[in-house]
Write a structure and sequence with these properties.
Elements: H1 6-12, H2 28-56, H3 62-70, H4 73-83, H5 89-109, H6 111-129, H7 134-142, H8 144-158, H9 162-173, H10 175-195, H11 205-229, H12 243-251
Length: about 250
């Protein structure tokens, strides 16, 4: 089960090491390419997680999914409490898993943000189920084309020397592995949810609660991705400086 909040655990997940390209001879073009790569990797990671989540939702009644999207945290808590009164020990463990996972998400997002994100995630899932391309959807959500233009203009106008560009390049390169560590954690929670499908009593309230958490996980990953690319359209979790903020901090003197 989950021990601690999602953000606390995520901070403990070691990111995969990555070869850095930063150096004294780094050019503005090099840093722009690195920033574009970081944005692409975040978008790709969100898209892959979304694809897996949509696959996990196969077989869930669409009406239940809509109900899950609109369910308040207090309603979920009441449903799980009622469910846990007369169930087997196995189902009780499943309920405890859902409660802990959901509490971790609330700690990261906040109740109001989590509720809004479940609705957004349900709309996203519906579009994906209708065949909309993952990359196009994520690019539109994060406004990546506009973000890349802003990043390029900032770098080209900074006049920063090679060593400063190189240090900033290394900082930007570190963003993608850090984001992947959070996707890995969300994926582990999702894998645990997948096991609940094999519990005979998983229909009804437990299935509904599972749907809530699937949507909450997707919402968390989408917003975490927005955090890492500094997407202007989405409210950010605010835990990390994203690509744009990292470059601003590295190139513009305080």
């Amino acid at each position: 089960l989950i021990d601690g909040s999602l953000e606390e655990i995520g901070a403990q997940v070691e990111p995969e090491p990555e070869m850095t390209r930063g150096g004294a001879n780094t050019t503005p073009a090099d840093l722009i390419e690195t920033a574009d790569d970081a944005i692409r990797q975040v978008v790709a990671g969100v898209g892959t997680f979304a694809r897996g989540t949509v696959a996990s939702l196969v077989g869930l009644d669409p009406a239940l999914l809509k109900q899950a999207a609109g369910m308040l945290g207090s309603e979920l808590s009441q449903a799980l409490t009622k469910l846990g009164e007369n169930v087997t020990r196995l189902v009780s463990k499943a309920v405890a898993f859902i409660v802990q996972a959901y509490d971790s998400l609330l700690a990261a997002l906040g109740q109001d943000a989590a509720s809004a994100l479940r609705v957004q995630a349900a709309e996203w899932v519906e579009k994906l189920q209708q065949g909309e391309a993952l990359t196009e959807l994520a690019d539109a959500l994060y406004q990546t084309d506009d973000m890349k233009l802003r990043v390029a203009a900032l770098i080209e106008g900074s006049g920063a020397p090679g060593p400063v560009l190189g240090k900033t390049q290394s900082d930007v390169e570190a963003l993608s592995p850090s984001f992947q560590s959070r996707i890995k954690l969300a994926g582990q929670i999702r894998a645990g949810l997948g096991l609940l499908k094999f519990i005979p009593a998983a229909k009804g309230p437990l299935e509904l609660a599972t749907g809530v958490l699937y949507l909450a996980l997707l919402g968390y990953v989408v917003v975490a991705g927005a955090d890492y690319v500094d997407a202007p359209r989405l409210a950010r979790i605010g835990r990390v400086p994203g690509v744009l903020e990292t470059i601003q901090t590295g190139l513009i003197p305080a």
